[in-house]
Amino acid sequence: MAVNTSAEAPIPVGEVSRLIGGWIDRLGAVWVEGQITQLSRRPGAGVVFLTLRDPSYDISLTVTCFRAVFDKVADTVTEGARVVVHAKPEWYAPRGQLSLRAAEIRPVGIGELLARLELLKKSLAAEGLFAADRKKPLPFLPQLIGLVCGRASAAERDVLENARLRWPAVRFEVRNVAVQGVHAVPQVIEAVQELDALPDVDVIIVARGGGSVEDLLPFSDEQLVRAVAACATPVVSAIGHEPDSPLLDLVADLRASTPTDAAKKIVPDVGEELVRIQHLRERALRSVRGLLDREERGLAAALARPCMRQPHRMVDERAEQVSGLLDRGRRCLGHLLDRADSELTHTHARVVALSPAATLRRGYAVLQHADGSVVRAAAEVSAEEELRARVAEGEFTVRAVAGPHEVAGPSAGPSEVAGPSVGPSEVADPSANSSEGAGPSDVVSPSE
């Protein structure tokens, strides 16, 4: 239950300590797993003091046990060992300290550790942390490399020396951390997150030399694996030797078998790149020369063609054909024009020969009544009827005598003969006469 207190009615420190102890005493015994960081066995003392630490969260608790309990595992349990403790929480009221009273201590064996790592591996793989599609590509030439390794370690020396031998201008941002023991996991996580936050760092290397399975356990910790998976910067794992495979190798964007191999995979060799550039230049030069040679041969073949050697030959040949066609067209048109002219001449001669005017010129005349109608038969003419005679060079008046078949000639007197009404150059309208149907029987010769 909560204690009702106020500034006017506080409770003493001893009472608070007693209440905390009462609450903790209600807890039962629990099984706790951790790593032993400190071990104190005083000669003649009946109690052994241990410090049990959680490597993932940087939390530790004091554990006490009777010497008889610890003697059962004294040969296998040392500092740095992982153990499982069956203990009951205790509160030491005079000092306000919490500790665990261990009734049983069990060392965690290698087989059990490997089994737990396998279960953790399957769980993380099911979440997709090891998937290949989430791995980020490494830059071709990193300008600044972040390195997480032990202080003055062989791994640090191998990475720095090999990288600078391959590319002397490469730069490093080094973070020295504990790479084994209870402090390894939090320090490595902090260093990785710090380097990931730097915008100039292109790639991060987590390197450590070889060691036992227990020494490499920090690099299989779940919190470290998740921290590496959350990095925006590509991470390279270079832990141990070729047979070693902590979980960090699976979540990293690139796995190197050794720290030296990590330097070779991340930094290109300047000598190899110069040779490669030289080969590429030579290859490009050969390609350009081959292209020029091929184009020159094609140009020479094109220039060797007859149309290129004598470019006007085709024009001359076509000019001859055009001239021949032009002459042929002119001849055909001349023949057509000559034929049309001949036909027109013949048609004109026939028209002229058959025209009424030509008939009149041969000496015939057309007789017309006073109303202008043409005399077609002698019966149409009455006695003493004045008719108008139309000849080729004009017209004059005649008078019919008695009898239908007798026609009087022109009278000698001025009252009987009318002079011509048109000039010598005027002729009769052929269309008008032809429309009346004048023929040889309708005209009268002046001699009659």
Structural summary, described in words:
The chain is α/β, with parallel strands linked by helices and 448 residues long. It is built from 13 helices and 13 strands. Strands 1-2-3-5-4 form a five-stranded mixed beta barrel. The chain has a five-stranded parallel beta sheet with strand order 7-6-8-9-10, sandwiched between helices. The chain has a three-stranded antiparallel beta sheet with strand order 11-12-13, with no helix packed on it. A hairpin with a 4-residue loop joins strand 2 and strand 3 (59-66). The longest helix is centred in the last third of the chain and has 42 residues, at 313-354. Mean pLDDT is 82; it is low at 405-448.
Quick structural overview:
With 448 residues, this protein is α/β, with parallel strands linked by helices. The chain contains 13 helices and 13 strands. It has helices at 13-25, 67-71, 110-126, 154-166, 184-197, 222-229, 247-251, 259-266, 270-303, 306-309, 313-354, 356-361, 430-436; strands at residues 30-40, 47-54, 59-66, 82-92, 97-107, 144-149, 171-176, 203-208, 235-239, 254-255, 366-368, 386-391, 394-399.
